[in-house]
């Protein structure tokens, strides 16, 4: 918790504390003046005294109000700033996570950590700056002043304080573990909800709405059940404290009345004593609220820290090599490349070797799970090779800044992701300075020009979140165009032609061949027809390259390739 809260500004926090100190001092001083006004003004009928002290009390009250406002302002501002800072830090950290790390946490948990967990810490920070300081000062100050007013009456506290400790302790004992578990349950609700939203089509197609609703209901019920339980327990706090406060009041009045009758105590002092007693009990209540909230926020702070303290598994070298666009000089080399996922027993890619030069097309083909996407992800360093070397334009890609490397690569992922906005904004994601002409040229190569032209708003047509208002094939073509808009030495298409019909697929490949002549193209595909013209075809089987060559060579002498090819096309189509 301290690690997280330390990120707040010391100056603002100090200002909040100073204002709070003024407020507490004013609040502690007022009962003393009330006692004076009663004993010296009211009892003796001294109207001047009442006016004078009354006036001073008004001024002190105004100071108390200003101090309370100042404290609230700085406490709120600093806690909000801390929240903003934490959200930004988590976001930046998560943005740089490798695909592996991202998968370990899961999107739902990262969202809960950025929103709910940060809110918990923010709330405690605000409370800390308001109550955490107020409560102890008030407790000590009020105890001291009460003792000064009448030492005999403090014996009431011998009964009251143990009672308060038992009541508050009991409530905390039951509530704190429940508060802790609520954070995990919030995570679970977010996870299920997110999964259901992203998988809504599958859920409907399989008629699993009821099953999913039950799953969500169960998590929701579990969370609500815990929340009700914990709030019921905490709800006892108020009536219990009111009971104790009333009891204290009666005790003080009972003993105080006797002392007044014996002329050992003045009425004003008794009234002041009652106010101090209430302040002592309120301080206990504030402290107990802090003790209830801190463990819950501690759980949140731990979850935030877990993300912030992650060491990135893919980092830039301290003195990276400089690289720039090579155009016709581009080269790509895989030298004994192996890759293993962190939690896997076997290699996902084993001993991959090849060389490609500017203008060439490298194709990767293989069955599902053979390692094709893994291969594609190694190129922009979304994963880091376990051993061996990948060289782009002669540079080991581990020696280049990730940013510089990715500037040289046009990447089309397996799932075409578009962002909410317009087609033009999505296209400019690839190159912010792309001219109108460049955008249309990229759309033309990607075979997306026609359908964009047909849309009433053309490039200004609206794109829904994830590109939901486009067909799978249209999304793929827009994602391809977005990558092509970028001047790159290497274009990677991870199964990016799979949703295209054969004719569009062929036209696209032809356009790529004609228009993108200098760059190296890496095409991952399941369809032989997509990669027939490639200069180098790598056939993957369980992560191993079981064939390497051109379509003709492989068709003549590679059994795996023959099996794939003959299962998809007729013999005459393969020539
Ligand atoms: N994050 C991961 N952690 C552990 N193993 C993984 C992970 N991602 C993929 N794998 C495993 O690595 C192997 C290769 O997966 P990859 O996604 O590269 O296959 P693919 O050829 O692209 O398959 P597909 O054509 O179905 O997309 C598979 O056995 C898969 O189970």
Automatic annotation (TrEMBL):
Coiled coil: none annotated. It comes from Tetragenococcus halophilus subsp. halophilus. GO terms for molecular function: ABC-type oligopeptide transporter activity; ATP binding; ATP hydrolysis activity. Its main location: membrane. Residues 14-296 form the ABC transmembrane type-1 domain. It holds the Pfam family ABC_membrane. The lineage of its organism: Bacteria, Bacillati, Bacillota, Bacilli, Lactobacillales. It is a multi-pass membrane protein. It is found in: Cell membrane. GO terms for cellular component: plasma membrane. This is Putative ABC transporter permease/ATP-binding protein. The keyword Calcium does not apply. Keywords: ATP-binding, Cell membrane, Membrane, Nucleotide-binding, Transmembrane, Transmembrane helix, Transport. InterPro entries: AAA+_ATPase, ABC1_TM_dom, ABC1_TM_sf, ABC_transporter-like_ATP-bd, ABC_transporter-like_CS, P-loop_NTPase, Type_1_exporter.
């Amino acid at each position: 918790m301290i690690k997280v809260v330390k990120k707040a500004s010391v100056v603002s926090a100090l200002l909040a504390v100073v204002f709070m100190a003024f407020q507490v001092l004013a609040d502690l001083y007022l009962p003393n003046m009330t006692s004076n006004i009663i004993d010296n003004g009211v009892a003796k009928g001294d109207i001047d005294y009442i006016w004078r002290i009354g006036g001073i009390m008004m001024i002190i009250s105004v100071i108390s109000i200003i101090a309370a406002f100042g404290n609230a302002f700085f406490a709120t501002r600093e806690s909000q700033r801390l929240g903003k800072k934490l959200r930004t830090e988590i976001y930046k950290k998560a943005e740089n996570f490798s695909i592996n790390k991202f998968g370990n946490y899961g999107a739902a948990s990262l969202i809960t950590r950025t929103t709910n967990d940060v809110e918990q810490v923010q709330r405690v920070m605000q409370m800390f700056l308001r109550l955490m300081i107020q409560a102890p000062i008030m407790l000590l100050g009020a105890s001291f002043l009460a003792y000064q007013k009448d030492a005999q009456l403090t014996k009431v506290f011998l009964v009251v304080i143990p009672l308060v400790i038992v009541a508050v302790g009991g409530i905390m004992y039951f509530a704190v573990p429940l508060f802790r578990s609520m954070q995990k349950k919030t995570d679970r609700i977010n996870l299920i909800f997110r999964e259901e939203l992203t998988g809504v089509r599958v859920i409907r197609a399989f008629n699993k709405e009821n099953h999913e609703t039950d799953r969500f209901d169960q998590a929701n019920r579990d969370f609500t059940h815990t929340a009700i339980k914990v709030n019921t327990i905490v709800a006892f706090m108020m009536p219990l404290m009111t009971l104790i406060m009333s009891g204290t009041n009666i005790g003080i009045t009972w003993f105080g009345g006797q002392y007044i009758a014996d002329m050992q105590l003045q009425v004003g002092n008794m009234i002041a004593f009652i106010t101090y007693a209430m302040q002592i009990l309120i301080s206990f209540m504030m402290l107990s609220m802090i003790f209830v909230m801190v463990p819950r926020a501690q759980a949140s702070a731990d979850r935030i820290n877990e993300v912030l303290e992650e060491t990135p598994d893919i980092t830039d070298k301290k003195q990276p090599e400089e690289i720039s666009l090579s155009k016709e000089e581009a080269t790509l080399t895989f030298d004994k490349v192996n890759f293993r996922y962190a939690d896997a027993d076997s290699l996902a890619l084993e001993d991959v070797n090849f060389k490609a030069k500017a203008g060439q097309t490298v194709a990767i083909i293989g069955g599902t799970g053979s390692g094709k996407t893994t291969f594609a992800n190694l190129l922009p360093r979304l994963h880091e090779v376990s051993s061996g070397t990948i060289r782009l334009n002669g540079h080991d890609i581990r020696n280049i800044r990730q940013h510089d490397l990715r500037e040289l690569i046009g990447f089309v992922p397996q799932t075409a992701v578009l962002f909410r906005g317009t087609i033009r904004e999505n296209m400019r994601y690839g190159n912010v300075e792309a001219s109108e002409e460049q955008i249309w040229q990229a759309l033309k190569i990607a075979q997306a020009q026609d359908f964009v032209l047909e849309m009433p708003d053309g490039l200004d047509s609206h794109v829904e979140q994830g590109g939901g208002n486009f067909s799978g094939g249209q999304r793929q073509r827009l994602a391809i165009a977005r990558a092509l808009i970028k001047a790159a030495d290497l274009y990677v298409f991870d199964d990016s032609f799979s949703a295209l019909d054969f004719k569009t697929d062929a036209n696209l490949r032809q356009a790529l061949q004609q228009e993108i002549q200098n760059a190296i193209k890496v095409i991952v595909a399941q369809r032989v027809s997509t990669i027939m013209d490639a200069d180098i075809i790598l056939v993957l089987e369980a992560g191993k390259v079981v064939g390497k060559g051109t379509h003709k060579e492989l068709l003549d002498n590679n059994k795996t390739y023959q099996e794939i090819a003959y299962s998809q096309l007729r013999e005459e189509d393969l020539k």
